[in-house]
């Protein structure tokens, strides 16, 4: 890094915290630059400056990782788990660097999960203001009718709050079940399951198949690969372009 950047951006890129959380860390007086406590958010630093948080030196990751994982059920979407459960990082093997998942998938949900060590990239994908669309395939009991689909699309009340507008279609019909493709631009706790339950259809299996236009493709369950340059560009570029 040759050019100056704001201190909160530096902390985010060094994986200390998100940019917003880094701002509070700075204003709380927990950051030193070249041995002096800094509380001004406009402070700029370069790679030649010594930055400390809570007395520990932090620095930028030299290599950036952008990884797509096809998450199996039974793995929690955290870097570590206090209960000793399997985490998604256990599936990455010998990948070096402080990689962390962007957003969450429930332990019993499968599918596309992005992991990175790029704080700005993670912020673009995860912050609600960027309206990044996530696509799920939900295997449900019964077949939602047009009325149920319309309710999903216009918002249903879950946990006392109405969901944002979505897109929903039945893409496969079985004897007593169906597959619903649902597209949302938020990520509340167990949201897709709760939305479908709110219209009378229990989710038996849930898979995230795409984020924006980046899809799982033929990536096997439990396997991962690096995102290519075109996919990274799509995810960063579409971060602010989707809208209701």
Strands, helices and their partners?
Elements: E1 5-6, H1 7-13, H2 19-27, E2 31-33, E3 36-37, E4 44-45, E5 51-53, E6 56-58, E7 66-71, E8 100-101, E9 110-116, H3 119-126, E10 134-141, H4 146-154, E11 157-158, E12 161-162, E13 167-173, E14 177-184, H5 191-198, E15 203-211, E16 214-215, E17 224-226, H6 229-237
Parallel strand pairs: 9-15
Antiparallel strand pairs: 1-4, 2-3, 2-5, 5-6, 7-9, 7-17, 8-9, 10-14, 10-15, 11-12, 13-14, 15-16
Helix pairs in contact: 1-2
Descriptive notes:
- The longest helix has 9 residues.
- The C terminus is likely disordered.
- A hairpin with a 2-residue loop joins strand 2 and strand 3.
- The strands form four sheets. Strands 7, 8, 9, 10, 13, 14, 15, 16 and 17 form a nine-stranded mixed sheet that branches.
- Helix content is 20%, strand content 29%.
- By secondary structure, the chain is of the alpha+beta class.
Features:
9-stranded mixed beta sheet, 4-stranded antiparallel beta sheet, disordered C terminus
Q: Outline the biggest β-sheet.
A: 9 strands, mixed
Task: Label the overall shape.
Answer: elongated
Spatial gap, N to C terminus? 37 Å
Low-confidence stretches: 240-244
Number of helices: 6
Q: Write down the Rg.
A: 20 Å
